[in-house]
Amino acid sequence: MARSTRSRSTDPLTREVVDLIGSVVARYYAEYELAAAHHSLTGAQARVLALLSREPTPMRKVAQQLKCEPSNVTGIVDRLEVRGLVERRPDPADRRVKVAAATDEGRATADRLRESLDFAREPLGELTNAERTVLRDLLKRMLGEDAED
């Protein structure tokens, strides 16, 4: 197949998709910050709590997932721990490593926060299951992750 002389990055459709992704991200972050504030959390604290509510995680791994310095995560976990939303505990696989884990109250707070995010949920609810599956798989592909299901 012959290659187009025009780069995909300058293709009008690609530019439009990139702009739309940027708009989605901006709206998501704005709503996420508002939802976090309603729970007296910063956006960063809410994101860490959301990650830890899924499973106990070493703070180094949390930093990698959030693309930030481990010292930032340590400070965030310190503040969440003072509020009783997370706790540090030894990693069962390697007791030399500490993991951060959401407490019951932390998981409940993360659930309430997630439930208050209407921006993505409402439009996604209008898509069929097949459309949501395709969207999920395309997003995973863009992130270099394997699609599941």
UniProtKB/TrEMBL annotation:
Pfam families for the chain: MarR_2 (PF12802)
Family matches, as InterPro entries: HTH_MarR-typ (IPR000835), MarR/SlyA-like (IPR039422), Tscrpt_reg_MarR-type_CS (IPR023187), WH-like_DNA-bd_sf (IPR036388), WH_DNA-bd_sf (IPR036390)
Keyword set includes Transcription regulation: yes
Regions that span the bilayer: none
GO molecular function, one term: DNA-binding transcription factor activity
Domain HTH marR-type span(s) in chain numbering: 14-144
Matches recorded under PROSITE patterns: HTH_MARR_1 (PS01117), HTH_MARR_2 (PS50995)
Keywords, sorted A to Z: DNA-binding, Transcription, Transcription regulation
An example Gene Ontology biological process: response to stress
Keyword Nucleotidyltransferase in record: no
Name of this protein: MarR family transcriptional regulator
Native source species: Streptomyces daliensis
